[in-house]
């Protein structure tokens, strides 16, 4: 799906903390700590249209990727009914309208609005456009965007989908964190990823990229009894 | 006359000897059997020689048996040794392993954001930027 619908690229924002515990006798466990991700959808000019914060359940993530693609069509398909507005000036307005309305819905504890692909009224040929609608206003003729079956290499999809912590994180992403992002993008407009990456990690994902301990310093050192001794070495 | 007969006898004996030598391979063991003995059975002979202990004593550990433990069972033994009880969501790794490079999934990633944007201008698709701590092509990320 990603290869078909996007031009994908990954970037490292900083190294991930790695914890290694050596139990002796060759028994060593190694794992990452406090790492996190963010998925942006951007225009070809490199401006951010929307962001998915953190880890998602596979089915929800796939659905949201479809929505990100629909958002891209939504801001560009505006030319179908723009009445001659210039597309360049229309894009930021369409994106802002999307974020403002999504933020309003989430603040009111309503479901997120749906980007539905619906036929254009009065068109002789079947031409579809994307409209931002309340979930209960989506017409039956709208193209379905139901997620397809998820396959995860090496691990059964049901096991990951049923991972309780992941389900809870997905729920927080979809409510609290998405509200923060919609509010921010409605405020700043279309910006480059670099302009919001530190804010996103610090305020939304609670991992301060400027802090060498990612904001975990208090937890790590507050009750450590040998801090002074270590500092004197 | 006698000298002539002696000379003829010598010549006949020499001729018979030459014929006998030349036809000798026809009556000897065929080459196939020699190969069997020299090539095919060589290993077996070595095994027998190496596994035969002294009469009344158990056969000593030989290179043939060592192969089983040294080569075949080395992997499973190390796996069993390294897969003791571990907490969920952790990975057991050898002490010496650092953070090996792995394949970054099945996605055809562009090498940079700029490259992805340039591709998006041609394809008309949006750019999907995946920000992360660590590196996607490393085991621990």
Task: Please summarize what this structure is.
Chain A is α+β, with helices and mostly antiparallel strands and 233 residues long. Chain A is 42% helix and 18% strand. In chain A, a hairpin with an 8-residue loop joins strand 6 and strand 7 (128-133).
Helicity of chain B, in percent?
A: 40-55%
How many structural domains are formed by the residues of chain A? 1
Q: What's the count of strands of chain B?
A: 2
Tell me the helix content of chain A: 40-55%
Query: Would you count the extended β strands of chain A for me?
Result: 7
Tell me, rounded to a whole number, the average pLDDT of chain B. 61
Any low-confidence stretches of chain A, pLDDT <50, length ≥5? Answer: 144-153
Q: Which range does the strand content of chain B fall in?
A: 5-15%
Run of helices and strands of chain A: HEEEEEHHEEHHHHH
Integer average pLDDT of chain A: 82
Number of continuous helical runs of chain A: 8
Biggest β-sheet strands, sense, barrel of chain B = none
DSSP helix count of chain B? 5
What topology, given as strand order, has the largest sheet of chain A? 2-3
Write up this protein.
The complex is a heterodimer of chains A (233) and B (141). Chain A is of the alpha+beta class. Chain A has one domain (2-224). Helices cover 42% and strands 18% of the residues of chain A. Chain A has 8 helices and 7 strands; from the N terminus they run αβββββααββααααα. Chain A has helices spanning 2-5, 58-76, 87-107, 157-161, 164-188, 193-204, 217-221, 227-232; strands spanning 7-14, 18-22, 28-32, 37-42, 48-53, 114-119, 128-133. In chain A, the strands form 3 sheets. Chain A has a two-stranded antiparallel sheet with strand order 2-3. A two-stranded antiparallel ribbon of chain A has the order 4-5. In chain A, strands 6-7 form a two-stranded antiparallel ribbon. In chain A, strand 4 (37-42) and strand 5 (48-53) form a beta hairpin. Chain A is elongated, with a radius of gyration of 22 Å. By secondary structure, chain B is mainly alpha-helical. Chain B contains 5 helices and 2 strands; from the N terminus they run ααααβαβ. Chain B has helices at 2-27, 31-51, 63-72, 74-82, 113-123; strands at 91-92, 127-133. Chain B is rod-shaped. At the A-B interface, helix 1, strand 1, strand 3, strand 4 and helix 2 of A face strand 1, helix 5 and strand 2 of B.
């Amino acid at each position: 799906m990603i290869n078909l619908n996007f031009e994908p690229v990954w970037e490292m924002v900083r190294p991930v903390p790695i914890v290694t515990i050596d139990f002796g006798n060759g028994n060593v466990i190694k794992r990452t700590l406090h790492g996190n991700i963010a998925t942006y959808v951007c225009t070809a000019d490199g401006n951010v249209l929307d962001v998915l914060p953190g880890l998602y359940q596979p089915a929800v993530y796939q659905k949201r990727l479809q929505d990100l693609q629909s958002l891209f069509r939504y801001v560009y398909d505006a030319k179908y009914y723009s009445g001659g507005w210039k597309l360049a000036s229309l894009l930021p307005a369409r994106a802002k309208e999307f974020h403002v309305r999504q933020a309003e819905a989430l603040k009111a504890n309503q479901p997120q609005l749906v980007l539905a692909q619906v036929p254009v009224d009065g068109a002789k040929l079947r031409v579809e456009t994307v409209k931002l609608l309340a979930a209960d206003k989506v017409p039956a003729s709208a193209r379905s965007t139901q997620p397809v079956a998820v396959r995860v290499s090496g691990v059964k999809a049901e096991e990951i989908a049923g991972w309780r912590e992941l389900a809870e994180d997905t729920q927080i992403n979809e409510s609290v964190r998405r509200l923060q992002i919609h509010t921010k993008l409605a405020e700043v407009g279309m910006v480059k990823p670099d302009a919001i990456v530190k804010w996103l990690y610090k305020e939304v994902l609670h991992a301060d990229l400027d802090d060498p301990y990612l904001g975990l310093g208090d937890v790590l050192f507050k009750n450590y009894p040998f801090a002074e001794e270590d500092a004197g070495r | 006359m006698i000298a002539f007969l002696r000379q003829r006898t010598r010549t006949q004996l020499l001729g018979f000897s030459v014929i006998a030598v030349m036809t000798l391979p026809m009556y000897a063991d065929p080459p196939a059997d020699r190969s069997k003995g020299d090539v095919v059975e060589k290993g077996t002979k070595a095994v027998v020689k190496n596994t035969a202990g002294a009469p009344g004593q158990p056969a000593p550990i030989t290179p043939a048996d060592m192969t089983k433990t040294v080569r075949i069972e080395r992997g499973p033994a190390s796996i069993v040794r390294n897969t003791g009880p571990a907490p969920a969501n952790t990975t057991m790794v050898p002490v010496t392993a650092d953070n090996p490079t792995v394949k970054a999934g099945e996605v055809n990633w562009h090498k940079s954001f700029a490259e992805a944007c340039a591709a998006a201008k041609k394809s008309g698709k949006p750019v999907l930027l995946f920000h992360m701590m660590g590196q996607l092509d490393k085991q621990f990320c």
